[in-house]
Design goal:
Elements (H helix, E strand, L loop, with lengths): L19 E6 L3 H12 L4 E7 L3 H8 L6 E2 L3 H6 L5 E4 L6 H11 L3 E3 L7 H18 L4 E3 L7 H11 L6 E9 L9 H20 L3 E7 L15 E7 L4 E7 L7 E8 L2 E5 L25 H4 L1 H16 L8 H20 L3 E2 L6
The structure holds nicotinamide-adenine-dinucleotide (NAD) and 1,2,3,4,5,6-hexahydroxy-cyclohexane.
């Protein structure tokens, strides 16, 4: 199920308030999905403008939404007085300036992960939003860690919080993509893929990550040259728990995202369809195990719906109801240590400012 073929959400916005006029910056794979969701499934908002470095792409996406304008310069879209809120879905290297422009204008922004590409620039976003909060008491930034809105992750968190499996000790994660676009590097796998598990670990365990170690097992023959794939990433939390992440981005098969938490009194796992599931290439390269989703758009369709609906509802109330700038910064600080650990081959401590 993707943005366009699922049944609409139940309207959630409060009556009597005007629709939020949203600009979406970057309408590639993710941005175009967000436009379709905001247009067809989410209530209380309308896509008033789109902006993309590829103007033909922007024209094509805008044509699907009545009343949607194309604004070629993304910063002009942010500055436009007829825009109330922004979704940033451009490549990560543009996030910092686009999010800072939203904070400068005092409008809410949902920024796709990663918040920025480095810990220092993410911290600059935190500081800018803190200055805005000191002046107004409000918050503006939400980061697109959509797994927090996935019903299975939410259920797992509640189970842990209720003591249902006792004190959590170890978390095992698998994050497997069938393939990644050309140009993806081993370092960008840490920043773009492992960043989800970093946020999941903080979300489930409620503590920071203190150190990262990265192991490089033998690489698959399916990986692009120079890509170390899979990786095993070990995250040690401040409370002494350990999270292991197998990240494998060129399986050639399907999209598998699993998380198992092992506690003192039990364990719980999410992300596995019931029954025996086998993933293997069949004759002629066909993929068996079709109950496993093909990609993140299918697996997390409900999470993206809920993420956008809650962002719109909160933005209309002048608040943020989801992972904020600090969560984006914390994840980048861990990923920076992860890239360092990858390059030096040793356990690396995370350097993070005090909140
Ligand atoms: N949460 C998730 O599950 C998820 C999934 C995929 C991608 N993402 C994130 O979404 C973002 C976009 O990824 P994608 O897969 O859609 O990439 P993409 O390459 O498909 O799309 C990016 C688009 O941005 C445009 N662009 C380039 N420079 C721009 C600029 N300065 N301003 C505005 N647009 C610009 C490109 O022309 C392209 O159309 C990334 O941050 C990525 O990490 C998140
Ligand atoms: O940008 C994508 C996206 O964030 C997906 O959710 C993740 O599974 C991929 O590994 C990553 O490349």
């Amino acid at each position: 199920m993707t943005a366009t073929d699922a049944p609409p959400l139940v309207p959630a916005a409060e009556p009597g308030t005007a629709d939020l006029r949203v600009a979406v910056l970057g309408v590639g794979l993710m941005g175009a999905d967000h436009v379709a969701r905001l247009h067809r499934r989410v209530s209380g908002a309308r896509v008033a403008a789109v902006s993309d470095a590829a103007t033909d792409r922007a024209d094509q996406v805008a044509a699907e939404v009545p009343g949607c304008r194309v604004v070629p310069d993304p910063l002009a879209a942010v500055a436009d007085p007829e825009i109330d809120a922004v979704v940033v879905a451009s490549p990560g290297r543009f996030h910092e300036e686009q999010v800072l422009a939203c904070i400068d204008r005092g409008i809410p922004v949902l920024c796709e992960k990663p918040l920025t590409l480095e810990a220092a620039s993410s911290l600059a976003v935190v500081r800018a939003e803190d200055a805005y909060a000191a002046r107004t008491g409000g918050r503006l930034v939400q980061v697109g860690f959509m797994r927090r809105f996935d019903p299975e992750y939410a259920q797992l968190r509640e189970l842990i919080a209720s003591g249902g499996i006792g004190e959590p000790l170890v978390v095992h994660c698998a994050h497997r993509n069938p393939a990644v676009p050309p140009g993806v590097t081993t370092e960008s796998v840490v920043n773009d893929s492992v960043v989800h598990e970093v946020d999941v670990a903080r979300f489930l365990l409620g503590e920071e990550i203190a150190a990262v170690t990265v192991l490089r097992p033998r690489s698959t023959r399916h990986a692009a040259e120079e890509l170390s794939d899979p990786l095993l990433v070990l995250l040690e939390t401040t409370g002494g728990r350990v999270v292991d992440v197998e990240v494998f981005v060129s399986t050639g098969l399907a999209y598998e995202v699993r998380t198992e938490v092992v506690g003192e009194d039990g364990s719980a796992m999410i992300g596995i369809p019931q029954g025996l599931v086998r993933q293997s290439a069949g004759p002629g390269g066909a993929v068996r195990g079709t109950t496993v989703p093909a990609g993140f758009r299918e697996r997390f369709a409900t999470a993206y719906d809920l993420e956008l609906q809650r962002w719109v509802d909160a933005a209309r109330r002048g608040t943020v109801d989801g992972p904020g700038a600090w969560d984006g910064y914390a994840a980048q600080a861990v990923c920076a240590a992860g890239v360092e650990a990858l390059l030096c081959g040793r356990r690396t401590e995370v350097r993070m400012e005090q909140r």
